[in-house]
Amino acid sequence: MRIPIYQIDAFAEHQFEGNPAAVCPLESWPSDDLLQKIAAENNLAETGFFVRQGDDYALRWFTPKREVDLCGHATLASAFVLFTYLEPGRTQVRFHTLSGPLEVTQESGLLAMIFPSRPGERCDAPAALVKGLGKQPLEVYRSRDYMAVFASEQEILDLQPSMPDLAQLDSLGIIATAPGA
What is the C-alpha to C-alpha distance for residues 114 and 64, in angstroms, rounded to an integer? Predict the structure, then answer.
């Protein structure tokens, strides 16, 4: 099976900037195992795979380790591949994903997408989060990811995360935030 691959730098105006994602247009879905092996081989934060579904597309995202339910930059990269290489002239696409439908539009060379909202609920800070960040946050919120809120920008700059400790958490990502100076 031959699978085309594009590497797109999202959120960038120039090559080798922004957030890279691999994009693989498919005619049909191969096994999940094969999709995972391709994503591992690509070794980028995400690889987006899509298959036509009528006028729309089904879209899935894989990290080198697992499938994820939402990835903004790989969605925009997939739309860019469609608009630029596969269907020039197309200015809107709807992707069907694990997070529901995502629409991307193109106007004057810019892409826009309404990202689904995932409001977090306030929770106690898990020990692995505090240990992994090296400091107790003021507040912690949980949705798919943990968001640790600190008092100042300097506290964020001073963090020295322990990735092995943070990897013990049952979340995809960790967000550390504070008001800016």
Answer: 26
Backbone dihedral angles phi then psi of residue 22, each to the nearest 5 degrees: -90, 145
Domains of the chain with CATH codes: 6-113 (3.10.310.10), 121-177 (3.10.310.10)
Q: Is 77 helix (H, G, I), strand (E, B) or coil?
A: helix
Beta bridge partners of 19: 10
The model's pTM: 0.79
> What are 36-64's pLDDT values in tens digits?
999 999 999 999 999 999 999 999 999 99
> If you write DSSP's letter for every residue of 149-167 in order, what string do you get?
E-S-HHHHHH----HHHHT
Beta strand 56-62 with 139-142 is unpaired
Backbone angles phi, psi at 86, to 5 degrees: -95, -35
Q: Report how far residue 41's alpha carbon sits from residue 36's, in angstroms, rounded to the nearest whole number.
A: 9
Cβ atoms 98, 109 nearer than 8 A = no
Give residue for tokens 């999709």. 35
* Token digits of residue 111: 């892409």
**Residue-wise pLDDT tens digits, 119-173:** 999 999 999 999 999 999 999 999 989 999 999 999 999 999 999 999 999 988 8
State the Cα–Cα distance between residues 55 and 93, nearest whole angstrom. 8
Residues with a known catalytic role:
46
